[in-house]
Structures are given as structure tokens and as C-alpha cells.
Amino acid sequence: MGKAGASFAIKRIYEEPADDDGCRVLVDRLWPRGVSKDRAKLELWLKEVAPSPPLRQEFAHMQERFEDFRTQYEDELADNPAVDQLLELAARHRKVTLLYAARDPEVNHAKVLLEFLAARGSRE
Q1: Which strand (E) or helix (H) includes residue 27?
Q2: pTM
Q3: The 3-state secondary structure of 72-119, one letter per residue
């Protein structure tokens, strides 16, 4: 299956769904507060691709820990079958939007996941 036309994007789940979001996938292990399943408009909740609970708790969204977190999370992703699931979704959809709840748009696991998928996709 060709992935040439597929793309990934990230977006906070608290933002309104848009027509150009494509396939919407929640990539958090915990359901975001205050968001109904109807409002989320998800195709999939892929908890398994989120950081492990110990890694998430150690990171605690602290900017000074982000680079260490990135390295450890990329190690987790390298052996995670959920990554293949996302790549398969990308093969079936023009766009896959990875949804996350973290407040900081630069210091969060979805950004690491997006970059990981871009690198992985370019190798295949």
C-alpha cells in the first residue's frame, strides 16, 4: 500500500473538529477532561501509542525533561505495534490527525510521535 499521499498532523482535542482533519485519532492514554465522545469525533482512540504510564509520570510535561523524555519515548515507539496501526491508517486516509490534550503545543508526546512517524514513513 502506498503512503505517498498520506500526511499526519497534530491538534489539541479541545480545538473544534475541522473538515480537513481527515481521520481523527486520540493518542492519549487517558480520556481528556470535559470532552464528550460525540464532540471528539474520533475514528479511533489508540491508547497503546501513548507513552507508558511510568514515562508519562516521570516527564510530567516539564520542559527541562523533554529531551530525555523524547529519547525514551522514541525507544518505546520503536517496538510498538500501534505505530504500524497508525501507518496503516495513513495508507487508507489522505490525512490522519493525532489528537492530544496537553496544554503546551511544543512540549508534548504528540509532537514526538508526529516526528517519529514522519521519519519512519520516509524510510518505508
Answers
A1: none
A2: 0.90
A3: HHHHHHHCCHHHHHHHHHHHHCCEEEEEECCCCCCCCHHHHHHHHHHH
